[in-house]
Every structure is written in C-alpha cells, then in structure tokens.
Design goal:
The chain has about 280 residues and is an all-alpha fold. It has one domain. Helices cover about 75% and strands about 0% of the residues. The radius of gyration is 19 Å and the shape is globular. Catalyzes the dephosphorylation of undecaprenyl diphosphate (UPP). Confers resistance to bacitracin. Keywords: Antibiotic resistance, Cell membrane, Cell shape, Cell wall biogenesis/degradation, Hydrolase, Membrane, Peptidoglycan synthesis, Transmembrane, Transmembrane helix. Belongs to the UppP family. Its EC number is 3.6.1.27.
C-alpha cells in the first residue's frame, strides 16, 4: 500500500494544533477532538495518534527545562543517600511534583475509561470551553493581583501542590485545559501567574506520561501500516517543535499581560464550535 499524502497532511495539522494548544490555557485535547471532527481524522488510530503527539509536546518541557529537571532528580536522590545533608531544594521540589500528581493518579485511575466514553466528544468539549473561560475570568480577577504571591518555584509547599493537583483533575474533562486548570489552582494556592504556568509544565510530565501510557497499552497495533507509522513520526516531531516555540513565548507573555485574552478566546471558540455542531459541520 502506498503513502496516503492527505492523511499525512492531516497528521501535520493535528501536530500543529497540539503544539500550539498544549501549554496555553485553551485545551489541546478539546482542540484535537474538534479539529479531528472537522478534517475527518477520527477512529482508533487517531485516538492513539493524539496520545503520541502529546508526548511530543511533553518532550518540549524536558528540553526547555532540562537543567531544572536534571538537577532536581540528582538532588532528590542525593538528599536520600546523604540522609538530608545535601540536595534539599531538589528533594522538596520532587516531593511537590509527586504530591501534585497524586489526585490525578487517583481520580484518573478510577474514572479514566468512563471519562473517555462520556466526555470525549464535540458537545462536552464546547461546554467545557465556555465553563473554563468563565472560570478563568472569575479566578484571575480575584487572585491574580496577590501582592504576596510566590515568585520562586522552589518556594512552593506540599499543601499548595496538593491544591494545584486537585485543580488539575478538572482537566480530565476535555476542553477544560490542563494548563488552565493548574494555573487557576496556582492562583488559588498563592502563586504568581508565571510560576503557576511553569509549575503546570512540570506537573504535566507525570500526569500526561501516565495517562498516555494507559492509552498506548490498550491500542491494537495490528492496524499499523507505513502511512500510520510515518504520520506518528511526523506528528510527534511537529508537536515537539511547535510546543517548544509556544512555551517560551507563553511564559514571556504572562510576565507582562493577563490571561483574559485566552478566556475570551475560549468563550468565542465555544460559541463558534457550538454553531458548527448545530449546523452539523462538526459531527457528534
């Protein structure tokens, strides 16, 4: 069987969408579901493809924050082996990431299959776009201007991490956005916007790798062919490159400007996608 060029083009489009939306508060999963419906990129392979390109975006976090990740891992084990004499900063950061991940592990493990069955569709995504946009406006207005907000990622406490982790569970509803959920959790927990965003990047690594692992284990690989394999490779690379570019610009943006623009976009996109569903341009 020869290569399906149109299929490869669709894979590139999906990779670009993933890279742009993964780390900004607009929901990558929601955009992938809606984009897949519009360009007819759906089915079992499409579901697995979305998981793989999300891992491409996660690789961008590892590359961008490699020194922090490496030093924290080294410090974590150094603290253990020296019985607390060295590596305290990295150990504390590692514990925070673990604590922040626990809620997603518990609720994700219990609800993963039900969420996939009930909420992974265009209509629930549109509703989540609207709900998430409204929540962003309300919570940002109340907490963003906190003069005592933490502006050092190593000063976050385990209790703050737990609060952020609980908010991260909102992202199990496609369209809510993991980035938006954790940033809102960061505001409520007392973090500055840029630190909340950066911390959301780190929390994404275990959360998304764990969730992706469950999906990849369940996939039927007998349907793989040359076109599918090439689509996976290209989609992964595209999402990685685009995510790396977007992450840098997103953090710089948050240091100067509020997130209201993303909330307005979410509400506007929710209305537009809702109309497209009503007109049956997007199939449910």
């Amino acid at each position: 069987m020869g290569l399906d060029i149109l299929f490869i083009i669709k894979a590139i489009i999906m990779g670009i969408v993933e890279g742009i939306t993964e780390f900004i508060p607009v929901s990558s999963t929601g955009h992938l579901i809606l984009t897949g419906s519009i360009i007819n990129f759906r089915g079992d392979f499409a579901d697995m493809f979305e998981v793989v390109i999300q891992l491409g975006a996660i690789l961008a976090v590892v590359v961008l924050y490699w020194e922090k990740i490496r030093d924290s891992v080294v410090d974590f084990f150094q603290y253990i082996f020296t019985k607390g004499k060295e590596g305290e900063v990295g150990f504390r950061f590692g514990i925070n990431v673990i604590v922040g991940t626990i809620p997603a592990v518990i609720f994700g493990g219990i609800l993963h299959d039900k969420i996939k069955k009930i909420l992974f569709g265009p209509e629930p995504v549109v509703i989540a776009f609207l709900v998430g946009g409204i929540l962003l406006i309300i919570i940002e207005n109340k907490f963003r201007k906190n003069k005592h907000a933490i502006r050092d990622i190593d000063k976050i406490t385990p209790m703050q991490s737990l609060k952020i982790g609980l908010f991260q569970c909102l992202a199990m509803w496609p369209g809510m956005s993991r980035s938006a959920s954790t940033i809102m959790g960061g505001w409520v927990a007392g973090l500055s916007t840029s630190i909340a965003a950066e911390y959301s990047f780190f929390l994404a690594i275990p959360a998304m790798v764990g969730s992706s692992g469950l999906d990849l284990i369940k996939f039927d690989y007998s349907q793989m062919n040359l076109t599918n394999a090439l689509a996976l490779a290209i989609g992964f690379i595209v999402s990685f490159i685009v995510a790396l570019i977007v992450m840098r610009r997103f953090i710089n943006y948050l240091k100067k400007r509020p997130m209201r623009v993303f909330a307005v976009y979410r509400i506007g996109a929710g209305i537009v996608f809702g109309i497209l569903i009503f007109l049956k341009v997007i199939s449910v």
